[in-house]
Design brief:
Strand content: 35-45%
Distance between the termini: 14 Å
Number of strands: 8
Structural class: alpha+beta
Order of helices and strands: EEHEEHHEEEE
């Protein structure tokens, strides 16, 4: 069963950790062992697994994302083509193993929603699968 998480962003570009919300979903779904798919159904946002111990990592990554947008002419009339470009680079999903009802993340890892065209109210879909 798919569960929808709501993510509210407050800046044009930001990384917001959603690990706790995804872990709560795993427990609510009663998944003991298997895997969890986390999916972003938006074309100007994405998902990433990265360090969650030091908040400077996220601010460093946001600056790098801003610098990564090439100085090319975009034709898309909405003016948010850089956000579309960045969502392609980051990707729209992450998959995680689940053992003993716990997400299997490395010591310093967390799941991040990457906003590239905010602020907005966004959705993240989570599906837990036995296996």
């Amino acid at each position: 069963m798919k569960q929808v998480l709501s993510v509210r962003t407050s800046r044009g570009m930001e990384m917001r950790e959603i690990t706790a919300e995804v872990q709560k979903t795993v427990r609510e779904q009663g998944l003991e062992n298997g895997f969890c798919i986390v999916y972003c159904p938006h074309t100007t946002a994405g998902l990433a697994i990265n360090e969650n111990a030091d908040p400077d990592v996220c601010s460093d990554l946001v600056r790098a994302f801003e610098a990564a947008v090439p100085k090319v002419r975009f034709d898309h009339a909405e003016g948010n083509s850089p956000a579309h470009f960045l969502s392609c680079l980051v990707g729209s999903s992450v998959q995680l193993l689940v053992e003993n009802d716990r997400l299997q993340l490395g010591r310093w890892q967390g799941i991040f929603f990457c906003e590239f065209d905010g602020p907005r109210e966004r959705s993240v879909w989570v599906r837990c699968v036995e296996g």
